[in-house]
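chain below, 284 aa
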Amino acid sequence: MTARDPFSDRTQHGLRRFRTGEGLRCLLCRLHDAGEDAWTHDPVAAELMQYTRDKYATLARRHDLDPWEAVTAAFHVMRAKSTREAADPWGVITHAVRITCIYEERAQGLLCSVNQARRAHVSKFHDPDRFTARAHPIVDDHPVLAAIEERYSNAKSEPDNTSTPVLAAVERAIQLLVLLGWPAEVARGGVEQICDALIRHGARHTALEVLRRDKQVRALLDIPSTSWNALLWVMLGKPEPMYAATNLGRGVLMRLLIGETVSLLLRDDALVEALVLASPGVGR
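prediction:
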């Protein structure tokens, strides 16, 4: 008499057999041997996914995630050979789902990919926040900004601006971009990302390199690489020593901080041309 596959029937007992470690191992081996389509058409696989959702729903909500995101993480682990051969398959899956939920939540807070959030040099940073929503002035975050604030604290502001020189420079940079055809949300998001990188890294050339390589920020702003790179060079300036005393080397943010106005920047033909041509949508 041929041995009967415990998953061949559709009884409640047969569908629930995977709740045990050994039962899950048998199911995963059978699905692996049946090929890729087995996960799509096998009724027991569908029941397993529903059970997995219920099993990890609380864990997912604890990290502000949808339960099906935990199921996705579990699905990838279930297909691994190491899971099928583990002494406790459910233990391996639970551990992997827990780790994925932790880094998924961290990635959402940092506005980056899960792979980036897993890296220690990225996850150590605090979640980004808007300048307008800060509990304390931005100049408290870095001595460079504090020095600028002290130097220009007695400078005369424009009549329509009562904010600090640093915040005024940020708002004027955004205004300049909008006047030259940049969408307001993209202009604000891009300038704030640049300022946040300056605060975190201190050195301008370091911030520029980090931002230039960060594809996640560009994806969040939904702009092409040409627009993003042009924005970085224009806002931060060229860090090479030969440009140090020129407008190309200072960059828009520094020029605004040392007293130049938006009206004066608009008279810089090279600057205007660079920003207009780099505006998202131009050439698409």
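The radius of gyration is 27 Å. The CA atoms of residues 77 and 93 lie 6 Å apart.
thats it, cya
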